[in-house]
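User: I'm putting together a small comparison set for a docking exercise, and I want a reference complex before I start. The sequence is below, and the ligand is 3-methyl-2-oxobutanoic acid. Could you produce the 3D structure with the ligand included, as structure tokens?
Assistant: Of course. I'll restate your input first, then give the structure tokens for the complex.
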Amino acid sequence: MSYISERPVERITLPVLQRWSQEGRRIVMTTAYDAVTARIADPIVDVILVGDSVGNVCLGLDNTLPVSMAMMNHHLDAVARTKPRALLVADMPFLSFHLGVEETIRNAGGFLQRGADAVKLEGGAKRVQMIRALVDCEIPVMGHLGLTPQSVNIMGGFKVQGRKADDALCLLDDAQRLQEAGCFALVLEGIPAELAARATESLSIPTIGIGAGASCSGQVLVFHDVLGLTEGHRPKFVRAYSTGFQLLQDALAHWAADVRNGAFPASEESYGLPEGLNDAITNWTPFNSN
Ligand code: KIV
């Protein structure tokens, strides 16, 4: 059975996403970091996120902290060139929205000038001033609460958040604050399902969960996780729908074996010589041979 329907023509703008969410349609979001992943994802999902997870997923980094604006711009450009129909959200990397309103607006506005429809940034009450400033400049903002990977040092690792009463209540307050500040949606990551459900019912904007249970208004997973392209530890909340890493490695190994045993390329994969040229090249003698 194929889950791929014909590529819908409608561009998923912010008002379209808001309408769908109000109609109770669950939002599907995944990441893309280049033109290939964007083209695979675009006919399927509603939102494409050029996530700062590019750092650990594609660039071999241990966490997202070293990801810079230059890296994000490079990957956003590759995705934006495919002109996706999905809403295109660009992730604000660490330190790109902390150093002052002007720099934050310049960074986020730059993302929109490169083709993003919206930006995402991590954090709660402390980020309200920046979020308001961005929204005032017509820059749509998606918030991100819970296990925010850029806070790895404060959290002491990638740990489920909101398991203590004051943390849980703080998250519910933060969700309200981000909504009031003008966020159009919130990512809720790595929190108990019941807490995500409470946040979702308390908000009028959609929540997009990752490791936050089934009651969110939508779900996001990293592209490479859904397709089983990532090696090593797989978080509990990931369901891999393919064994992509193994499938791709098997295919590459098959090609390598065919090269080594002479089965590749076949005549269908080779170019023929135009008629009459065969004699010419057979009779040709190497320049230096006597
Ligand atoms: O960077 C990212 O991929 C993310 C998602 C996991 C929400 O922030």
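The chain is about 40% helix and 15% strand. Residues 31, 49, 51-53, 91, 187, 210, 220, 222 surround 3-methyl-2-oxobutanoic acid (CB under 6 Å).
User: Thanks, that's exactly what I needed.
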